[in-house]
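Hi F.,

I've been meaning to write this up properly since the lab meeting, where we talked about keeping a consistent format for the predictions we share between groups. The idea is simple: the sequence comes first, exactly as it goes in, then the structure tokens exactly as they come out, then a line or two of notes. No screenshots and no reformatting. I'm using this chain as the first example so we have something concrete to point to.
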Amino acid sequence: DYVSGPGNREEMMGQLFALFITICMTTGECHEGVLGVYASEQDCNQAMFEQRVHGECFAVEPGDDQRPAMK
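Output, unedited:
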């Protein structure tokens, strides 16, 4: 049973996954970027395949007062 409260947001929303890529400049400087946030790891992996990018899907937790825009 779901019990409402500030600590149970993950139970209600489920785990979220962000698709990260690493972008390297010709100067050798590299940065990570997020291409999207997805409702499941499978959706994240599917997006990576469809967009033809080499990245990684990591579980993320939204802040207490944030609701991410998901694809």
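Notes:
Residues 3 and 11 are 9 Å apart (CA to CA).
Residues 1-12 have pLDDT under 50 and may be disordered.

If this format works for you, I'll send the rest the same way.

G.
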